[in-house]
DNA sequence: TTATTAATACCGACTGGTCGGTTTGTTCTC
DNA sequence: GAGAACAAACCGACCAGTCGGTATTAATAA
């Protein structure tokens, strides 16, 4: 099963269309025909490249999670002060998701699908755990450097930090005009870091 | 347009079946026929009581949000120490959602639907804002009582607190076995309160 | 108490249309 | 010319919602 350059192009077209439609209307409410139409591609082409709608979803989720991981890794280079890293993350958190086109809605879609379909769940847990571990290690370093109090449990704190981030994104997506979310995010991370010192 | 006791019973049967199915499989993946079957009710009965599938969803969301509000109000009576109230909330947060049958998955469903359908959004914003206001007032009281530092912005802090709660529920639903979520919740609220003092 | 009326509650077959996926055949590309 | 890439017609299952008609229940009159 080789791949011509033309093939890769249509694959990308399908993936991009699907990303947009899934995040706007959800997995179930998005039809394969709709995806094909937006990608200027026939159904035959679709099922030549993907074995099913779910298959496309899994591929989509995989590539998206990879992209996110790359972006997050790139944030923490050049700085050694751990609290500063978290504050940097907070400062650009909006931008990170903007850079990924459709941002949080699609993550929410991944989340709900993973809660329902075991195969989706299995593909999502590992990146999720890796992400937590990355945070955990960062916090551990912070403790070692004396920036955080020694009684802190890195793993637990990592989950709390993740919670704040996810909760803020959830609210910001739901009610974008409701608050200055950049300010709320900055303040939230600030409160948490203050509690961790 | 009156209602016989028989009518109320079938209404409840439909609502309960729908609650279960919506939270398990989602709104789109749940068919009206499925709901009827589970409720031992015909399609005719369904459309006698609800004008559409969406209508049922809105009714369902309304009653659920009312129930949640009642539960949260009932938590804060009998105590005057504001930080203690939050710690109590954290302690019973798991129980609160257990008491509401299907807990967080259905809330997630409300959230995603509200992000997509304007009418759902409109019905959800008001309770959401009321909830935030309730938290905000609680924090304001805490500041007045000297439990929190004066530089704290009550509204912003309320949103941060909500974020932690939602983020924790999100993670706990996704990965129930991944951690001792009761402990993580306790610790998370603890960190936040420490930062607020 | 009983018969009548009317409104509520309900049934299930049916409809127009959409869905994910298949099939058959054509067109590119190497 | 061989296999990859694509197009479009097609299929059966399923969907939300409708409709003509039937029970059930409550109010009213005899």
Describe this structure in words.
The structure is a homodimer of 197-residue chains. Chain A is mostly helical and 197 residues long. The mean pLDDT of chain A is 89. Chain A has nine helices and no strands. At the A-B interface, helix 6, helix 7, helix 8 and helix 9 of A face helix 6, helix 7, helix 8 and helix 9 of B. Chain A binds a DNA duplex (30 and 30 nucleotides) through residues 1-4, 6-7, 10, 31-33, 41-45, 47-49, 52-53.
Q: Keywords, please?
A:
homodimer; 197 residues; mainly alpha; DNA-binding
Number of β-strand runs of chain A? 0
Oligomeric assembly: homodimer
Structural class of chain A: mainly alpha
| Radius of gyration over C-alpha positions of chain A, nearest whole angstrom | 19 Å
Question: Would you kindly provide a brief summary of this structure?
Answer:
The structure is a homodimer of 197-residue chains. Chain A is mostly helical and 197 residues long.
């Amino acid at each position: 099963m080789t791949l011509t350059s033309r093939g890769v192009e249509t694959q990308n077209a399908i993936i991009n269309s699907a990303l947009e439609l899934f995040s706007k209307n959800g997995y179930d409410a998005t039809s394969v025909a709709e995806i094909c139409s937006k990608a200027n591609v026939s159904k035959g082409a679709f099922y030549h490249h993907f074995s099913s709608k779910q298959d496309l979803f899994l591929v989509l989720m995989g590539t998206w999670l990879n992209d996110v991981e790359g972006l997050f890794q790139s944030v923490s280079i050049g700085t050694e002060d751990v609290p500063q890293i978290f504050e940097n993350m907070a400062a650009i958190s909006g931008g990170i998701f903007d850079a990924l086109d459709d941002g949080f809605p699609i993550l929410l879609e991944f989340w709900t699908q993973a809660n329902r379909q075991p195969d989706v769940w299995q593909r999502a847990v590992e990146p999720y755990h890796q992400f937590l571990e990355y945070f955990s290690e960062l916090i551990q370093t912070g403790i070692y450097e004396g920036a955080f109090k020694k009684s802190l449990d890195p793993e637990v704190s990592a989950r709390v930090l993740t919670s704040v981030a996810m909760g803020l994104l959830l609210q910001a997506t739901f009610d974008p005009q409701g608050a200055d979310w950049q300010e709320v995010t900055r303040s939230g991370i600030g409160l948490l870091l203050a509690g961790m010192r």
